[in-house]
Amino acid sequence: MNKSAAPRLNGVLLLEQIRVLGEIGADSVNGGRTRIALTDAEKAGRDQLVAWMHELDLDVCIDRIGNIFGTLRSASNQGDQAPLMMGSHIDTVTNAGALDGCYGVLAGLAVLRAFRDAGMLPARSITVGAFTNEEGVRYQPDMMGSLVYAGGLSVEEALATVGTDGTRLGEELRRIGFAGDLQPGAVIPHEYLELHIEQGPILEAEDTLIGVVENLQGISWQQVVVQGNANHAGTTPTRLRHDAGYVAGAVVAELRAIARESGGTTLATAGCMSFEPNLINVIARRATFTVDLRDPDEARLVAAEQRLSQFLATIAKEEGVQIGTELLVRFQPVTFDVGLAEEIEASAKRFGFSHRRMTSGAGHDAQMIARIAPAAMIFVPSRGGISHNPREHTDEEQLLKGAEVLLDVVLQRLNRT
Ligand code: HGY
Ligand code: MN
Ligand code: MN
User: Fold this and answer.
1) Are 173 and 28 in a shared domain?
2) Does the pLDDT of residue 4 top 60, yes or no?
3) What does the alpha-carbon distance between residue 389 and residue 392 come to, in Å, rounded to a whole number?
4) Which ligand has the minimum distance to the alpha carbon of residue 100?
5) CATH number at residue 285
6) Shortest CA distance to 360 belongs to which of 100, 98, 102?
7) Confidence category of residue 187, pLDDT binned at 50, 70, 90
8) From the CB of 135, is ligand 1 less than 6 Å away?
9) Is residue 3 one of the residues assigned to a domain?
């Protein structure tokens, strides 16, 4: 790398782009923004990101699952080089914060802009990726774009996925104009770095700025359907009921017991639930709900799944209902690259930033890319540990310092090339 002025972040522009992207899909009634994967709002976010990539004169390409990549070619411009990759996602949950995913993608762009502003080209190509459908709330599994990229799901299977709204993923991808032709995973990164907000309470509680993320917990998502009998709420004695609503409630209570008795390592959530016929004076004939189980240890996660399965079998017999389950997502815990984690830690030390090693509670694209390349993550604090919520917030100074660490680790990696 030629040695003119070292690349420096334009922090003002990074914060401005976070604000502008955060306006896309803004929900003035319920707050935050909603850019569910492959909706018109997300298309608008994608279009804005691609426009910013072109402003930086990056090589922009879209793969067959709609992953977006912007690459700053190296000085030698050998297209066959394995690039250093940074990335995350720009799709959101409903009424989301402005930082989840977007911060990592836009900080990656800020790193490339630092090279451009310094009139420098990197010793090795650098790519910023925005992966399709990280949240997985419309089409499952989550982290879908990076999972396909890493070879964990065929692109054909992913394109055929039917969403919670009955749409087909491949058709929506074509409709929004992001059905690219690049084969996912065609370019395997030399390494992958993802800067992300913690989305949890630890860094703030410990007044620590940088999270050196060394591993990520396992995730198990399933849908449960309880089939009972509808009956009159006023004339049916309790002993004669086959009440899907009661069973769903009992399962949710058992989920809390599983989490509590794990000593805090297992997390259990029933995030979606619906009853049929959903009438005040009718015993529910059917309850449909989801279960999200997580634990950093695979054996404990399996034990939680087995305990739930046992509970379902027992209560089905006791209450005279049928219970069906469908596994939607199952990802084992992931350990990130030790060397990269050490370099992130060394960078935080160089800056004199407080830092600590930690596990990621949330799923991230990095856990998928870790299947094909050395990967690691950098966290910055979330105020009140809040995320997937319009109140998601990280102080500007913390956002900029996190981006400084990202740039510094990139420079260290490239200078060693
Ligand atoms: O579910 C997750 O942890 C991520 O936000 N998709
Ligand atoms: Mn995220
Ligand atoms: Mn998220």
Assistant:
1) yes
2) no
3) 6
4) 2
5) 3.30.70.360
6) 100
7) confident
8) yes
9) no
Question: CB-based contacts of 294: which residues, under 8 Å, 6+ apart?
Answer: 217, 218, 219, 220, 266, 267, 301, 361
Contact assessment for residue 204 and residue 384, using Cβ atoms and an 8 Å cutoff: yes
- Candidates 134, 138, 328, 382: which one to mutate for ligand 1, based on the most atoms within 8 Å of Cβ? 134
Average pLDDT taken over every residue of the chain: 96
**Residues of the domain holding 113:** 11-217+333-415
How many domains, in total, are found in the chain?
A: 2
Are 182 and 129 within one domain?
Answer: yes
**Domain final residue, candidates 312, 331, 350:** 331
Is the distance from the beta carbon of residue 136 to the nearest atom of ligand 1 less than 6 Å? yes
320, amino acid identity = G
131-170 pLDDT, tens digit each: 999 999 999 999 999 999 999 999 999 999 999 999 999 9
Ligand 1 atom nearest to 363, measured from its CA: 3
Q: How far is the CA of 101 from the centre of ligand 3 (A)?
A: 7
- Nearest ligand atom owner, CA of 197: 2
- Ligand 1 pocket check for 368: Cβ under 6 Å: no
Q: Would the CB of 345 count as within 6 Å of ligand 1?
A: no
- pLDDT interval class at 3 (50, 70, 90): very low
| pTM check: above 0.90 | yes
Is 302 within a domain? yes
> For residue 124, what is the domain's CATH number?
3.40.630.10
Mutate to test the pocket of ligand 1, among 364, 368, 379 (most ligand atoms within 8 A of CB): 364
List of residues 6+ apart from 149 with CB closer than 8 A: 63, 65, 67, 129, 131, 184, 185, 368, 369, 372
Lowest mean pLDDT segment, chosen from 112-116, 133-137, 184-188, 395-399: 184-188
pLDDT digits (tens, 9 = 90+) for 313-363: 999 999 999 999 999 999 999 999 999 999 999 999 999 999 999 999 999
80 and 192 in a common domain: yes
Q: Indicate if ligand 1 lies below 6 Å from the C-beta of 134.
A: yes
| Last-in-domain residue among 331, 348, 382 | 331
Residues 277 and 390 in one domain: no
* 313-323 confidence digits (pLDDT tens): 999 999 999 99
What's the pLDDT tens digit per position in 250-263? 999 999 999 999 99
Ligand 1 pocket member 363 (CB < 6 A)? yes
Q: For residue 156, give the nearest of 188, 189, 184, 133 by alpha carbon.
A: 184
Does the C-beta of 295 come closer than 6 Å to ligand 1? no
Percent residues over pLDDT 90 in the chain: 95
**Residue 6 forms part of a structural domain:** no
The CA distances from residue 171 to 25, 63, 307, in Å, are 21, 15, 39
